[in-house]
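Deliverable D4.2, example record:
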Amino acid sequence: MKRTLKISSRKVFARISLILKYLSERDNISLKDIKRRLKEDLELSVSDRTIKRDIRTLREDLGFKILYSRKKDGYYFEKKPEFFFPKLTEGEIFTLIITANLINQFKNTPLEKDFESLQKKLEAILTDKVVISSERLRMALSIPFNFIKPKVDIKDTFEKIFRAITQKNRILIKYHTISSDEVKERKVDPYHIYNYEGIWYFCGFCHLRNEIRDFALDRIESVKILKEKFEMPKDFNFYEYIKSAFRIYKGNATTIKIKFDSYQARWIRERIWHESQKIEELNDGSIIYEVTANEEEIKRWVIGYGVHAEVLEPKSLRDSIKEELKKMIEIYNI
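Output generated by the structure prediction step:
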């Protein structure tokens, strides 16, 4: 009677893949060595019986010619297969390195262990199957991600909000608003979780403010998943929504014009800072930069350029910066 192949578990697939890798690397390998290496690579303890069953699957279901030597007390290929995993190019390895760096974003979330486990499995499976080693490429290229780190453990908050998003349940949160230094209870329809500069946020419809708002997970003091269901608006697209911000602030967007002198203009004109931007070149090498964005966020950005930037419009933003500078002069006793 022909057996039905079942490799539905991710753990089983990873285990069998590694056993194939071990067999390909040596002329003979014992059960003891297979068990030891599985423990090292997957942090997985398995019995002799399980490994024998995996080898039987490789033989009978997947067609690998694996033999056993009583003399050497080990398994080996009658003829080694020519291919286990496709060779990767430098660019593909580079992509994996970037992915490994991005794993840092998931620190202190419920997904942290899953990403670390995936990284170990990739490293175990891809060893010696690439055009150039990841270590050599890492010496030539780097992708530094200097993320801001929250002081609060957000694992429980992240897990509850993610579950509410996938199950379309409203949530009740106690949220600390920094600007007012108040903690208020809010009922929210959660739409999407995202990361900005190392800090996790979620956006959703706030029933208190009657509009879509963003909430930092580390400012949420408590989360309760409600039985109430919600439907996400059909016209809501997170990627369109996030583009409306210059950086993170959304709403109250207005058209802003900033003059950058010839010195700073060289850096401003070489990048696209926002999709709405327009640049007018002036005869002296300076530029007028126009963007539609939140005034408060642009104010912080412009002040960072010091004397090299001047807000021309709107008047409300000019006045706000003047007040900010007056206060700074007082602080420094000028």
